[in-house]
Structure formats: C-alpha cells, structure tokens
Specification:
By secondary structure, the protein is an alpha/beta fold. Helix content is 39%, strand content 15%. It is built from eleven helices and eight strands. The chain has helices spanning 11-17, 25-32, 40-52, 55-77, 96-103, 116-119, 122-125, 144-151, 175-187, 205-215, 227-232, and strands at 82-86, 108-113, 133-138, 162-166, 194-200, 238-239, 245-246, 263-269. Strands 1, 2, 3, 4, 5, 6, 7 and 8 form an eight-stranded mixed β-sheet that branches. The longest helix is centred in the first third of the chain and has 23 residues, at 55-77.
C-alpha cells in the first residue's frame, strides 16, 4: 500500500511490492479479458472460478464495454473534457483516455491506482493526443483528499470532471466506508461533474460462489453487493437514463451484449 501522498517510486521499489504467490484482482481481471499481464496463480484461480461460474467472464468483458459507452456519452453528448479514473487496473484496449480523446482530443485524464503491477504499466496509460493530457498517480482510494489535491496538477477543478470508479469499490469491505469515500471524492468536484460506477453484484448464486472462491484464494478480498447498495452510491445525484441497470443494459449499442450479467452500473450528474 502506498503512502497517502502520491509519490515517485523506483523500479526496485515497484518490484518489491509485487506478490506473485497470491492471485491479484487486476491480473485476474486481465486474464478474463484476454490480456497477457497475469501469472500462473491468477490463471489457476481464474480457471477454477470459470468452472464454478462461467458468467464472470461475461461480467469482465461487458463491464469493459460499459466503460467505453459511458466515456463516449460523457465526452460526446455531455461535453465533459476531464476524467478522474480511480482503480485504473491494467491497461488493455480502449482505456479511458483513448476513448475520451477519440471523441475530444483535448480531453484530460488522471488515472489513480496504488497497485504496483499497474504502476509498471503506467507508461502505456500516459500516451495522449497533443491537445490533451494524461497523468498517473500512485495513490490510494482511502485518502480522497490526497487524490484530489494531486489531481489538481492536471485537472481544472473549476470545470466539470467525470469521476470513474469501475470494479473497484468491492475491495472496500465496509459499505458505509465505501459510500463515505465516494461522497468525499464527489464533494471535491464542481457542479456539473459526473459519477460513473460499475461493480459485480450478488444477484445470483453463481456470482456469490465465485466471490467466495476468490476471497478464499488468499487474494485481497472483493465483496459483491446488492443492486440497492450500488444505487446508494448515487444518492443526491441526478441519474442519467436508464438509471442503475445491468452493465449490458446501459445505453447499449450494436456491440453491446444482451446477456444478463451480475454487474450493475450507473452514471449520475452532480447538481
């Protein structure tokens, strides 16, 4: 875990923080979406969970598709030019900055994660159009004030910002604490900003069993929540249609799958 203040770390320090003896959520998710940045321990638990609940692969893939649709909507239809992406995960195709700058070349994106394996790939997240800018913060969700303060070097806090927390809040075991962290982050953003959340949900026995198996593997636990709890993160904000729905049902396009998945999402505007 990094210190509360974002900082520059050396390659040796990064390597020392990487544990390849236990599964890791970012690497595990990377395996499910077809990436190569994972280890045998991640693939083993991934294959075990596929046997228990094959639908988790659909959750990983369709949640990634939701990211693209949400960013395109905000950058295109809502004119948002700034994105704060917390819990970035490992780079794959169509990261937030790639989607946003394809629509709006002048978009600015700050990625936040305190995962050493993600930090090793930060350069892949720092490509940008000449008109825009991207930055990576080695920082901690549990220190929202530090995150916001550090993001000010890239983002203009007098203008709306889209806060994106995708498949990350399940790592916060206590729901009230997770709510408080989201509230603190949104409190620091100006009117007209947006909150974008997606997360796995306890909406089937298969997903609950998969979550239990993952948490028993020695990895940092990930807790699936009810749809009512996901909706609670948006309290006090104005939800964008169609509200809190399965990730496949949020403004689907031709590429969106119609399969039912145990993952819900929402996009909401701060009044």
């Amino acid at each position: 875990m990094s210190e509360s203040n974002p900082q520059i770390v050396t390659s040796a320090e990064i390597r020392a923080r990487i544990d390849t003896t236990k599964p890791h959520s970012a690497r595990f998710w990377n395996y499910f979406v077809g990436g190569k940045d994972n280890y045998e321990v991640d693939r083993e638990i991934g294959d075990h969970i596929k046997e228990i609940f094959p639908g988790l692969v659909d959750v990983a893939v369709t949640s990634r598709h939701f990211l693209g649709r949400a960013v395109r909507h905000l950058a295109g239809e809502q004119g948002i030019r700034q994105f704060l992406d917390i819990g970035t995960g490992l780079p794959t195709a169509d990261n937030t900055h790639e989607v946003a700058q394809r629509v709006a070349p002048d978009a600015r994106i700050v990625y936040v994660d305190n995962d050493p394996i993600v930090l090793t790939h930060a350069n892949a997240l720092l490509t940008s159009t000449p008109e825009g800018k991207t930055a990576y913060l080695d920082a901690n969700l549990y220190h929202p004030d530090s995150v916001l303060n550090a993001a000010e070097s890239t983002l203009d806090f007098s203008q709306p910002i889209a806060l994106m927390i995708l498949n990350t809040l399940g790592h916060v075991a206590d729901y009230d604490q997770a709510r408080s962290l989201v509230d603190q982050l949104m409190a620091g953003l100006p009117s007209g900003s947006y909150l974008v959340i997606s997360d796995s949900t306890a909406t089937s026995e298969g997903m609950i069993a998969a979550s239990n198996a993952y948490n028993a593997s020695g990895a940092v636990p990930y807790y699936v929540r009810s749809t009512e709890e996901i909706a609670g993160f948006f309290e006090g904000l104005d939800l964008v249609e169609p509200g809190v729905v399965q990730v496949t049902r949020w403004r689907p396009d031709g590429a969106a799958s119609e399969v039912a998945v145990d993952a819900y999402c929402g996009v909401a505007r701060k009044p």
